[in-house]
Design goal:
Blueprint lengths: L2 H10 L2 H13 L2 E2 H5 L6 H13 L3 E6 L2 E6 L2 H28 L4
Antiparallel strand pairs: 1-3, 2-3
């Protein structure tokens, strides 16, 4: 697995970070303060989660005046999906070979 996909899965391993990603996907860009209002955690905790998501390339922050607004960046999710499709295709080939081997002759 490549390093960016590793970072993506590590970032998404936490249920709060997955919820933040889902919130940004459904409701669009938001500040850490706005996101904190949606979760039972502090603004500082949300900011830490956003920092990890940003390191994984899942969100980007854009400064608007004094506010930093985060939005979802879908490209890393597409990379992870491509990796999963590749792994799935390998399993499909192996299972097809096994089925052919186990198929009764005659």
């Amino acid at each position: 697995m490549t390093e960016p996909v590793d970072a993506l899965f590590a970032a998404l391993a936490d249920p709060t970070r997955r919820a933040v990603v889902e919130s940004l996907a459904r409701q669009g860009a938001a500040s850490a303060t706005q996101l904190a209002a949606r979760f039972p955690i502090s603004r500082q905790a949300v900011a830490k989660h956003l920092g990890l998501l940003e390191e994984a390339g899942l969100v980007t922050g854009t400064r608007l005046g004094r506010e930093l607004r985060y939005e979802l960046t879908p490209a890393p999710l597409e990379d992870a999906m491509a990796w999963m499709v590749e792994i799935g295709a390998g399993w499909d080939r192996r299972l097809a070979a096994l089925a052919k081997h186990l198929k009764p002759k005659g």
